[in-house]
Amino acid sequence: MNRSLRETLLRSGAMINGASRLALHFGEPEAELRAALDGCALVDRSDLTRLLAGGPDILDLLHRLSTGEVRDLGPGQGRPTVLTSPKGRIVERLFVHHLGETGVLMVAGASSADRVTKHLQGYTFAEQTGLRDWTETTCQLALVGPGATEALQAAGFAKPERFQGSAVEFEGRTIQALGEDGLTGDGFSFVVPADLAGSLWQALSLAAGSCGGRPVGTLAAEAWRVLRGIPAAAHELTEDYNPLEAGLREAVSFDKGCYVGQEVVARLNTYEKVSRLLVGLVLPPDSDPPSPGTPLIFQDREVGRVTSAVVPPGWKHPVALAYLKQKSAEPGIELAVGGTKGDLLARMVALPFDEAS
């Protein structure tokens, strides 16, 4: 974490995780979760990977390697896309932003710079991409929740359109405002030089507070993600699954023609062969959240696996995300977690979770 941002977060009451270098909470994780769900939350998403490419061939390369229609993006425009393997599996989900003369920005999951770079380089021949890692020299701060637009405007920034971006001025310098929050197109984020991140955090925190929002740490932010049913890199977005199973249809063009893995993804869609769905699970009160990869059993057969699990702050029971075979994905069905004896049963619910869950 940048020193300027770290000092600002500590002054705001943050408890910092020494491993991730992110704020765990700001003293009231239950209130932080409520702000994210019902109001506005300011989240440090600086752990997300940010790659910048200044070469003339980057969009053409991405177009040939991923699911989205990105070749013709112009300055200020952006789009989600998914890098896929030859088997049509998820390598990484990217938010691609054309920043004009600055270059093309790709926002990916945490700690994925090496994997994404290696994948792109494996298909690069004479292309000029000018690819470099922008993660350590920048920070990414996000506004999420139903009050995010109000907080954005309270901070004096114009609202970017969904997945779009624009260069804006802050303290006499240029930063990037994006119409996505690093995980979805429902929020907003700013990519800012690292030394300016502390000042921007203060400004956004004041704006969020004026709208009844607040800064949130990773405990509340991760619970918010799971409760909203949002897939994330290294959990739901891995090479074990394809983009349609993960619910990433918005990032898939079925008209663009060839890309790596295109035939597989197209067949899954055309012949309705998507065999697994991302679902929610509610576990018994006071039970431990199951580890990612834990099998789910129905009638002595494995029908799915857990991908993420948390006990939301203020809740008594864990909730989880899991991939489940479509034939078994009936809301209310009970699944044995981790074995066939039924010692721990999880109830399947549709996503997103609701308060009655």
General description of the model:
Helix 1 (3-11) packs parallel to helix 6 (197-210), helix 2 packs across helix 7 and helix 5 crosses helix 6. A hairpin with a 2-residue loop joins strand 10 and strand 11. Among the domains are: 3-46 and 135-227, 2-Layer Sandwich (Gyrase A, domain 2), CATH 3.30.1360; 275-357, Aminomethyltransferase beta-barrel domains (Elongation Factor Tu (Ef-tu), domain 3, Beta Barrel). The protein is globular, with a radius of gyration of 20 Å. 22% of the residues lie in helices and 29% in strands. The chain has 357 residues and is of the alpha+beta class.
How would the blueprint of this fold be written?
Layout: H1 3-11, E1 15-16, E2 23-25, H2 29-38, E3 41-44, E4 48-53, H3 58-65, E5 78-84, E6 90-98, E7 104-110, H4 113-122, E8 131-133, E9 138-144, H5 148-154, E10 165-170, E11 173-178, E12 188-193, H6 197-210, E13 214-215, H7 218-228, H8 262-270, E14 276-282, E15 295-298, E16 301-310, E17 319-325, E18 334-337, E19 345-349
Parallel strand pairs: 3-13
Antiparallel strand pairs: 1-2, 3-9, 4-7, 4-8, 5-6, 6-7, 9-12, 10-11, 11-12, 14-17, 14-19, 15-16, 15-18, 16-17, 18-19
